[in-house]
Amino acid sequence: MQHWTTIVAEKRARTLSRIPNEWMHPNIIQDMAEKNVKNACKYLDGILPVDEVNITSLDATALVENIASKKLTSYQICYAFCHRAALAHQILNCCIEIFFEEALERAKQLDAYYASTGKLKGPLHGVPFSLKDQVNLPNIETTIGYVSKVGQKADKMSLLAKLLHEQGAIFFVKTAVPTAMLASETVSTLHGRTLNAVNTSFSSGGSSGGEGSLIAAKGSPLGVGTDIGGSIRIPAAFQGLYGLRPSHGRVPYMDVTNSYEGQELISSVIGPMSSSLRDLELFTKLVVDCESWRYDPDVVPIPWRNFDGQQTQKLRFGIMTWDGMVLPHPPILRALEETRKVLIHHGHEVVEWNFPHSEELIDVAEQVYGADFFNEVEEILNESEEPVSDYMQLARNNILAKGGLGKPLSVRQWWEVSLKIRKLKQQYLEHWRDTANQTSDGKPIDSIICPVWPSAGFHDREVEHGCENYTMPFNLLDYSCVVLPITEVDEMKDKPNQAHLAKNASDKKMQDFYDAKKFGKMPVCLQIVCKRLEEEKCLAIASIVESCLSTMP
Amino acid sequence: MQHWTTIVAEKRARTLSRIPNEWMHPNIIQDMAEKNVKNACKYLDGILPVDEVNITSLDATALVENIASKKLTSYQICYAFCHRAALAHQILNCCIEIFFEEALERAKQLDAYYASTGKLKGPLHGVPFSLKDQVNLPNIETTIGYVSKVGQKADKMSLLAKLLHEQGAIFFVKTAVPTAMLASETVSTLHGRTLNAVNTSFSSGGSSGGEGSLIAAKGSPLGVGTDIGGSIRIPAAFQGLYGLRPSHGRVPYMDVTNSYEGQELISSVIGPMSSSLRDLELFTKLVVDCESWRYDPDVVPIPWRNFDGQQTQKLRFGIMTWDGMVLPHPPILRALEETRKVLIHHGHEVVEWNFPHSEELIDVAEQVYGADFFNEVEEILNESEEPVSDYMQLARNNILAKGGLGKPLSVRQWWEVSLKIRKLKQQYLEHWRDTANQTSDGKPIDSIICPVWPSAGFHDREVEHGCENYTMPFNLLDYSCVVLPITEVDEMKDKPNQAHLAKNASDKKMQDFYDAKKFGKMPVCLQIVCKRLEEEKCLAIASIVESCLSTMP
């Protein structure tokens, strides 16, 4: 067997080798630095041909419209996105598998199909679609960040990929993930580090950081990430994107490669990420309409239900300013306050959301994530002798510090964790119902609005300056969550919060980490949260909130 | 602490003491023997006043109609059922908690409510409703067959009980279960043995045997059992009743006491048992209409969906004659054949159902049931020092014989079991889809028809002459199943199957066990099986099948 360093070097070279020579730009990072540009998206807008910039500025919905009306061909679109993705990858290191040639060939076929039949294949006809590495495609490797998985191809195409393909999507890249997908940044010994497309000195977030980075650079209009602790929402929030964490059983996960397969207490879910909210709905409705419960036994047979809320209807919101453990940074707090004001201004009602067992939500979720004491990860790392990741060391120390056993749980300890989760779910639902006592019309809230992450991100190699406090609870609860861009960090408005006395060490660390200048102009997103299996409602409410925000003075 | 024998004696005496003196009949078993009657239901018809017999012959649907039209009062109905249940218990030992006084008081209140408002409380207004012991009620013990739980009252009323109460149900008894609910008969050191109401020399089945026995004796019109391996369906089948095993998440299990709480790979589910099919639908629609997902996080937000199949519409059935491991007895095979003929006669289509991985379904399910090597059961038994049950010894030996570890699984072994289940679910669904290749119109089957149990039951103390081969798979798959009475054992028609060569030791044991005379006149039921969360369809199809059978020449 080859030494792991050789495997890594060859894998990285192979990925790059799939980029056509004419799209290679060996000095691209240097060029950005010389031009003093940190925003990869803006930089690419400046160096790409105008017609390609115009195309890549469109969302999936608009792309299909342009194809349908024959203003653009699939080929033109695919070419523009492949080109841009090629350059984005050279800046951001966001892709792990590249197959532009096959994508362009398929685009030609789709154009021919449309020309000859006058029909589109489906609602995604001709749309370039990026996939997180976990999604399996024929003859393409799935390495999920492990050196030892280089060369491994899944025997089955993921069901979701099949459905999207049938509806006309064109796959052209698979995007990078951290080792085993178990981190809130995107770094692995295998592929290196994925940078933030809005500001390359920041982390792309993770674990769907490759996806977030590529989409934010407009190298892909629409793609899928997965989320077991925030992995769709964190990279979406760090890069000003829209993302949906659906509930388990709404979007098929069948034959998607994963860590800890068979772990069913907190299910990893797969969902869309895009620079457009309506694209999230396009994707989700399309997938639900495929009735994938006929194929995937984990999918719940719930057809698409239009949310009957009208723009004019009064909604009730619970705002969770903070969880009592780690206070969000000033820009996040400002986003919450601005959203609150604008919602009230539009006649909606806002109450406070303070769930009294937030700490337990985090503790129990961590018991799930560390249940096998990372034995599976270690075993797979050992196969290639690649070094144990910093992440795993941190995570293990965290478990031991919390009184963990230093070994995997027994099945009975696992059932105890399961019972704790059930109890927390019941308590959360009860707390939700009890908001009826706070609203003027005695109805419970429709949705929670809360931070995604306590800061607007972190610089690379600063992952420990963060916490999944605002994402993990909704994985444990299995609620539907939409990430919505609200504003950006404003040095003038977002002064440090001197009055706040840190509650604990994590809180102090987070507050000390704030520096308005450092975060300047970084996007600020919030989460719209609805209950389990309320994806339609969550997307519709996100749209209403966005529409209210658009009228903000 | 008292000796366990004292606790048992006192508990049994306490249960009996809740029966009014005028309803005590100390010689009832002797009287039946003298009259040479084995059927408790028929016996009770003979000794009870005619008006009470008339009332107790009605199903829940008819009872509510009679209350609504003021032909009967709740009190009259409650009195008749309490009286009959009191006698049934003295024959069958089917109850564990008795509270007639409270029930009759509530009946009076309901009558007064109706008289003063002209409104019924709900679709179960005034219907006596029996509950398997696991269901928690205020101030009433929940012992689930353990001596050590005597005196324990749950701190919360089960959500389902609350909902049923709100809809007008009158609780009057809780019914007996085997120790820990882990058996296909109903026997415990605590309460003794529950007899079959159709023929008292047979077992009532289990674990909802108390419920099945009481309802078959017409001591209750409608009740709920639970099912993790067949526990609703087996007692229903052994006593000629209707029963629904809903999918997990359709009927709320919240705050129902259980064994192995937190074990979530094969979920115990709660569902109705009755002597009427329409009562199953009455119950299920009512419960779904309560939108209990607002309270129980495990309930899936799927409203009641009327199945659009008409009596005249062609349906497609897969008939599973046997699973390739244990051939059902001749009466069961005849029931399948008669059903097949009658369905074809009515224009429906029937294809063969042969899932190739039946053995794996059983093996994997057993890995789940034995995952903790019965440590929990043993611990609870030890608290009172009651002896280890025969059932647990058998089950443990079975695990060891199959290469089990003799100790609980680790969390990673548990995840492996979980993965096996997911794979089997996918294979089953694929096999179901593939039936489209067998039907004339290229559509997959609507439903499977199959045995519930390979025999029409077993005599008391013969539980080892049985197997859950036809029930357990649908627990693992989480499919919706309705038990439907088809015929009864006929000595003349159901001659032993001489031609069959036993496939294995279990098969031989089952075949050797057959004796047409011994089973004579025992009810024969079959299962109608639909996919996960298809309760409405399953109930509607059962009704169509029943209607076809009613025209059988």
TrEMBL record, chains A, B:
Positions with a binding annotation for substrate: M181, S207, I228, G229, G230, S231
Domain (Amidase): residue spans on this chain: 79-539
Lineage top rank: taxon: Eukaryota
Keywords: Hydrolase
Enzyme class: hydrolase
InterPro entries documented for this protein: Amidase_CS (IPR020556), Amidase_dom (IPR023631), AS_sf (IPR036928)
Enzyme Commission code(s) on record: 3.5.1.4
Protein family (similarity comment): Belongs to the amidase family.
Protein name, as recorded: amidase
Annotated PROSITE patterns: AMIDASES
Annotated GO MF terms: amidase activity
Positions annotated as active site in the UniProt record: K132 (charge relay system), S207 (charge relay system), S231 (acyl-ester intermediate)
Signal peptide extent: none
Reactions catalysed: a monocarboxylic acid amide + H2O = a monocarboxylate + NH4(+)
